[in-house]
Structures are given as structure tokens and as C-alpha cells.
């Protein structure tokens, strides 16, 4: 083999391996991209303590089960509950991190699951609560909105307030 043939062979092998690598990366649907973007906006609204922006991702009849197991029905009730935390200087925020989104092939629904972290300043340190969540999203004329969320607290560290 001469130098030109070897160069062509190496380029061909590179392109072949690059092509198969590029094909293995799944392309996210526009629905998944939209839901991820809305989750990011929701996290940013919590960080900014922006109640209006936080509520924009929810349907009016949202159902939420908190990490402690208590239940809140309706967007207005959810926002009233969250507004208390937003006013609390010891509330450091919640972050929900998406692990997976599955879009229904039979109805305008999607399931998002992931893990979450809540942080609070306490006299003896920063209380960090972590857990998992599942959200049901419904596609509406105005885009994807959260229909229900279930949060489960799994661990708490950093403060004697854990376990109380």
C-alpha cells in the first residue's frame, strides 16, 4: 500500500467510526426538550423566589404530594404554600434534576422522573433533604403543564432538624 491509500483508509475508518458514534446518540424529541426547558424555568423561578413564574408551569388543578407525604390540591393552594417558604430567609431553595422523560404515544401526557434537593439554613448548619420525584405533564394548547407531582424524601443531613 502506498501512502495515499493508507491515508484514504485511515480517513475512511475515522469517518466510519465517527458516523456510528454519532448514530448511537439518541435525538431528543421536541416534547422532551420543551419539558426539560420548563423544568429549568421552574427551578430558576424557585431560586429567584418568583411565585408567578413558578406557577406558570402548572395546570390550575395540579395535585402535589410533598416529600413528607402531605397533599396539596390546586395551583392556588400550591402557590400559597410555596409563598410561605419564599418569604422565609432560611429557605435556600429546591432543585429538581430530571433523570428521564417519557412521552405517551396514546395521550397528551408525559412522565418525568428524577431526584430533588431542598436546602434550609438552620442554627446548627444547612439542612439538606434529598429524594426522588415523579411528575405528570399534560400537553395543552399553551404547551406542556404539570398535572401532578409526587415527591418522596429519602435522606436528610446537616442539621438536628432532620427527623423532626
Explain how this protein is built.
With 164 residues, the protein is of the alpha+beta class. It has one domain: Nuclear Transport Factor 2, Chain: A. It has helices spanning 3-24, 30-48, 51-55, 75-87, and strands spanning 58-65, 71-73, 91-103, 109-122, 125-140, 143-157. A six-stranded mixed sheet has the order 2-1-6-5-4-3, covered by helices on one side.
Q: What's the helix and strand layout?
A:
Elements: H1 3-24, H2 30-48, H3 51-55, E1 58-65, E2 71-73, H4 75-87, E3 91-103, E4 109-122, E5 125-140, E6 143-157
Parallel strand pairs: 1-6
Antiparallel strand pairs: 1-2, 3-4, 4-5, 5-6
Could you tell me the radius of gyration in angstroms? 22 Å
Task: Quote the beta fraction.
Answer: 35-45%
CATH topology: Nuclear Transport Factor 2, Chain: A
Please give the CATH architecture.
Answer: Roll
Number of domains: 1
Separation of the first and last Cα atoms = 76 Å
Question: Within the largest sheet, what's the order of strands?
Answer: 2-1-6-5-4-3
- Give the number of helices: 4
Low-confidence stretches: 6-10, 12-23
Helical percent range? 25-40%
Mean pLDDT value: 89
Amino acid at each position: 500500500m502506498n501512502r495515499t491509500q493508507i491515508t484514504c483508509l485511515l480517513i475512511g475508518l475515522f469517518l466510519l467510526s465517527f458516523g456510528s458514534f454519532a448514530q448511537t446518540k439518541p435525538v431528543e424529541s421536541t416534547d422532551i426538550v420543551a419539558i426539560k426547558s420548563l423544568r429549568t424555568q421552574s427551578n430558576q423561578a424557585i431560586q429567584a423566589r418568583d411565585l408567578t413564574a413558578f406557577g406558570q408551569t402548572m395546570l390550575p388543578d395540579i395535585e402535589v404530594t410533598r416529600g413528607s407525604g402531605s397533599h396539596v390540591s390546586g395551583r392556588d393552594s400550591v402557590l400559597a404554600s410555596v409563598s410561605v417558604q419564599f418569604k422565609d430567609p432560611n429557605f435556600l431553595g429546591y432543585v429538581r434534576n430530571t433523570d428521564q422523560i417519557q412521552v405517551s404515544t396514546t395521550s397528551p401526557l408525559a412522565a418525568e422522573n428524577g431526584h430533588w434537593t431542598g436546602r434550609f439554613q438552620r442554627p446548627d448548619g444547612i439542612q439538606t433533604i434529598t429524594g426522588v420525584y415523579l411528575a405528570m405533564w399534560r400537553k395543552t394548547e399553551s404547551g406542556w403543564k404539570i398535572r401532578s407531582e409526587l415527591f418522596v424524601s429519602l435522606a436528610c443531613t446537616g442539621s438536628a432538624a432532620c427527623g423532626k
